[in-house]
Structure formats: C-alpha cells, structure tokens
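Predict fold of Fructose-1,6-bisphosphatase class 1; 335 aa.
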Amino acid sequence: MLRKNKTLGEFIIENQTSFKYTSGELSRLINSIRLAAKVVNHEVNKAGLVDIIGAAGDTNIQGEDQQKLDVYANEKFIQTLKNRNIVCGIASEEEDSFISINSQDKNNQNKYVVLIDPLDGSSNIDVNVSVGSIFSIYRRVSPVGTPVTLEDFLQKGNQQVAAGYIVYGTSTMLVYTTGDGVNGFTLNPAIGTFYLSHPNMEFPQDGHIYSVNEGNYIHFPKGIKDYIKYCQMEEEDRPYTSRYIGSLVSDFHRNMIKGGIYLYPKSSKTSDGKLRLLYECNPMAFLAEQAKGKASDGFTRIMDIEPTELHQRVPFICGSKNMVEKAEEFMRNAQ
Ligand code: P6P
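Predicted 3D structure, encoded as tokens:
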C-alpha cells in the first residue's frame, strides 16, 4: 500500500529499483520534468494577470517581452531537459523538427528521447480554464554516442518507457507511469513540493461521462454518431452526462477518476482527427492502459500504430474500458 504524503522525490528513489532500466537516468529525467512543471505552473498561474503582465507579443510592465505561454512552456521544458544533460533528443508540438542534443559529443551516453506537448489546450488560458503538459519517453534505437535520428522518435507507443502529464487546474498535479501503474502527485505551491495524493490511479471499467465536441456531430463517421446517440438514449444507465472542457488532459484526468470516455474522431473536416499520435495520443494511451482503461483509433490499439511522421494525427477514443469497447462496437457495425 503506497503511503500518501510521500514526496515525488521519495517516490522516484523508492521505485527506481523496480524500473527495469535502473541506471538512475530515468529518475533524473522525471526529476527534470518535475522542475519544468513547477516553472511552467508559476507562469500559467500568473497568466490571469494579462492586463498587468501584458498579452503575448506585448511588453509587460517591466518592459519584458511577454511570450505566448505555449512558447514559454516549450522553452522551459527544452531548457530543463538540456541543462540536466539526460536526453539525446527532444521532439515538441512547438518545434517543426526534433532537437538533437550534444550530438557531436561521442561521449554523450544519453539514451532517452522525450516527446512533449508543452502546453495542451492553451486556448483555454485566456478564459482561465485548466490546461496541461504531456510527455512521452523512449529509449533511443540508434547507437549511443551518435546523433539522434528520426527513427528514435518514430517508435510505436508500446515502446514507451514512461509517460505522463501535468494538469494546471484548481491544483497542479503531475500524473505519470513507468509501466508499473499510474500515480498522481499534487503540488504544494507554498513549498514547491509534489506529494503523492492519488496512488494507483485506475479508470472505473464503466462510466457515465462522455467527452466529445458535439459541434462537429454532422461531420462525424456514422459509428461515432450512433455511439453519441447511444449515450443520449433514455435506457438502462443512460443518458450519460456530457462534459467537454476543450483540454485533453483535464477531460482525461476527470474521466480517469470518475469513469468516462473521451473521443476526438476523424471527421469530414479532419480526415485523421486533430490529436497528435506521438506526443498526445501515445502518452495518454500508455497512462490509460496502465490505469486499466483503453485507447484506440476506433479500430486499432493506439500504442500499436506504426508512426510515419513526427506530427501525424490519429483519431482518438480513450477512457473506461467497457465504454471504449462499446464505441468500437458501433464503429465496427457501421462499416
Ligand atoms: P476542439 C486542445 O487544442 C486539444 O488539442 C485538446 O486538448 C482538446 O481536447 C481538443 O484539442 C479541443 O479541440 O476542436 O474540440 O476545440
């Protein structure tokens, strides 16, 4: 039984031996993400003072250039990971191509690559709604000591060694897995320490919440339309409740605690959906499966999809296992 109120640092040390690659590097990597999370959290929480600190592109009252928070978060995660000299490469939603780190240094023995969505749902910032950061970690497949390659990033989600998110909500939480379950840590901002608040997080097998942008309903495939109508029917344990925040991390986090399903399907407007496979869908799918939930594109397990490009999009259905399987049933029957 995991003792609550354990700090994230204590948790990482205690669980390092259980991680099959016990070099300690992954622990240092999670620690660097912890630091970046605190730095970004501080800035995200200030964003409400836009009229004082200035909107993006302006200069604030100190005459400093006010950065868009996406840009700021991206820079802080990259800077923190670089400074700790732990990874050999980084890919980010905010960067067209991957970033190679110390690639000319033959002594660079770093063997991890990190893929990030530094600030997901950032359009919610201006309306004071919660947003998140998402990370996905792999071991490189190219030889250590050589420049990192695109293949190091185009790995299937089932090769991830760790994944997680930070949700900047009513409280700031870091939720992650290294393949041995999912644990949630809540930041005490007064002392800047994350404490284990949600040990062994699991999706309820069933739920009564569905999260989808119903404004796109007429553009959805028939199977998705049929599933949404199923959620709304007066029958058995339905109608379900519709909850859609417009922030993947926030909808996922609520659904994992209460039970529910999140859907971002393809549509006649977006043939592959909107969410990115490598740094949104794969890490959330790893967390979902580790929390006894499920994640697919409607037909194929997300973590089995062979990536073809860094920023590719896939349809995404994720959450309580029985709800995802019901949605997949409607998708199959509509074929
Ligand atoms: P829409 C945010 O931009 C995001 O990537 C997810 O966090 C969120 O669930 C989704 O897109 C919202 O997209 O098209 O419904 O506004």
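The chain has two domains: 8-198, 209-333.
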